[in-house]
Specification:
It is a single chain. Strands 1, 2, 3, 4, 5, 6, 7, 8 and 9 form a nine-stranded mixed β-sheet that branches. The protein is of the alpha/beta class and 280 residues long. It starts with a strand and ends with a helix. Residues 165-174 have low confidence and may be disordered. The longest helix is centred in the C-terminal third of the chain and has 23 residues, at 256-278. Helix 5 (142-162) packs antiparallel against helix 10. The protein is globular, with a radius of gyration of 18 Å. Helix content is 44%, strand content 19%. It contains ten helices and nine strands.
Length: 280
């Protein structure tokens, strides 16, 4: 079975190269491909990635003409993996992650045989020792989403009128996860977007993630979709990755106020897409 890893590159060539090398060097599996999608990085970093992998078999380099955001950017690679490579499994994985597990691909196949998952997520260890998967389910209602949106709008007003910016970004980055691995296989969960593994059950129905968002709440949207279509999401501790977290995001320029306004604007757009899903 063909397993394709899709890595969305933006700004940080060092992280992308470390991620790709970890897959090439550590994962023992013959039928694997890697797709690197540049999301219109303005700093010339993708040229370094191209120079390293342009003659490397099993690595495909794609370049977007504009920054499409997280979902649409990843979907460029997803569609290529689906339509051109006829992949049985597609792994969307952040470029600021590292895989050291030699049987990573073999475990994916084994877990599909055991669970028949549509989407699978691994144990994700952060640099500060927390485990990000599985995420707690959020049982959103339209009312809760509209209240969440209102709070975001009011925060933008605070930023523009009172300049209360730094508190927002500091507050949104709460510690997520637990200090110990959650053992076993667990279904009916929400999965962290740093690594999402899709089986052909998902691939045959979708062309990637919901493309209505630019950044934020992709995990919530995915949970809503899987509930709506009665497809299963699983977490397994038998798969493990290391996540450095927000490498590209931290490189994006601007003042704290500008970063906060950008964050809240993207968040509001994502909330609107979630509301549309809940109203179906």
């Amino acid at each position: 079975m063909r397993i394709t890893f899709v890595i969305l590159h933006y700004l940080s060539d060092k992280d992308t190269i470390e991620c790709v090398d970890s897959i090439i060097q550590n994962i023992e599996y013959e039928d694997k491909e890697i797709i690197i999608v540049d999301n219109a990085s303005p700093n010339g970093s993708f040229e370094n990635v191209e120079d390293k992998y342009k003659k490397c078999g099993g690595v495909i380099l794609l370049k977007n003409d504009q920054n499409l955001g997280f979902a649409r950017g990843n979907n460029v690679g997803f569609k290529y993996a689906k339509d051109t490579l006829s992949s049985d499994f597609i792994v969307l994985i952040n470029n600021d992650t590292i895989i050291n597990q030699s049987d990573f691909a073999k475990v994916i196949v084994k877990k599909y045989e055991e669970t028949g998952f549509a989407v699978l997520g691994p144990d994700i260890l952060t640099h500060d020792g927390y485990h990000q998967n599985p995420l707690k389910r959020r049982e959103w209602t339209v009312c809760k989403l509209k209240m969440f949106k209102l709070k975001a709008i009011l925060r933008i007003a605070d930023l523009q009128l009172l300049g209360l910016g730094p508190k927002i970004l500091n507050g949104k980055k709460k510690i997520s996860g637990v200090k110990q691995t959650i053992q076993g296989d667990i279904t009916n969960v929400r999965l962290h977007g740093a690594c999402l593994i899709f089986s052909h059950k998902y691939i045959k129905k979708f062309d990637g993630l919901d493309d209505g968002t630019f950044l934020y709440m992709e995990e919530d949207l995915l949970q809503m979709q899987m509930d709506f279509y009665n497809l299963s999401m699983w977490y397994t501790s038998d798969l493990r990755i290391y996540h450095k977290e927000d490498a590209a995001t931290n490189m994006v320029g601007g003042t704290e106020k500008e970063k906060n306004i950008r964050f809240l604007g993207n968040l509001i757009d994502s909330i609107n897409v979630c509301i549309e899903w809940k109203e179906k």
